[in-house]
Amino acid sequence: MRNARIWVLIADAASARICSTKDGTATAIDAGTGAIRGLDTPGKRDETLCRAWFRAEGHNSFSAGPVRRFALHLGQILKEGAREKAYDHLIVIAAPDIAGHLEQVLAPETRALLVGEVVRDLRPAGISPVEIREELWH
After folding, report:
1. Which of 21, 30, 79, 130 has the fewest CB atoms within 10 Å around its CB?
2. Minimum mean pLDDT among 6-10, 59-63, 112-116: which range?
3. Reading across the β-sheet that carries 26-30, which strands appear in turn?
């Protein structure tokens, strides 16, 4: 595992970040539109693309809750990365509000690369979500 490319997914119901050990990059993903920061722009186009993906992948519940849709979006990103051999191993760090959804949506090729997962409330008591986000996104 010395030269292994490891992706680390850090997620809650509102946002996620995928970090790579290969090049040290981190890609931010917002739940609001499912847009990848810097690559997509919110709007009608995003919803149309998302609906098309759901139909193409055989999902019949685009109307599922927003957390479930976000988990499905993350699962798709991880599956595409696994298929393209963009990473060798995966670690998932998730808040309880999305962890169960992620567990259900991970594809077999993604699960095969999963080497660790941590499920915990990422927000200590007394700290607002805004403060936690600022700390995590610096």
Report:
1. 130
2. 59-63
3. 26-30, 15-20, 6-11, 89-94, 114-119
Greater confidence (67 vs 33) lies with 67
Asked if residue 91 lies in contact with residue 6, where contact means CB atoms within 8 angstroms, the answer is yes
Q: What angle do CA 35, 44, 18 make, to 5 degrees?
A: 5
How many residues belong to the chain? 138
Closest to 105 in 3D by CA, of 84, 74, 82: 74
Question: Is the pLDDT confidence value at 81 over 50?
Answer: yes
Rounded to whole angstroms, the Cα distance separating 92 from 12 reads 11
Sequence letter at residue 136: L
Cα–Cα distance measured from residue 10 to residue 23, given in angstroms and rounded to the nearest whole number:
17
Q: What is the Cα Rg of the chain in Å?
A: 15
Calculated CA dihedral for residues 40, 41, 43, 46, nearest 10 degrees: -10
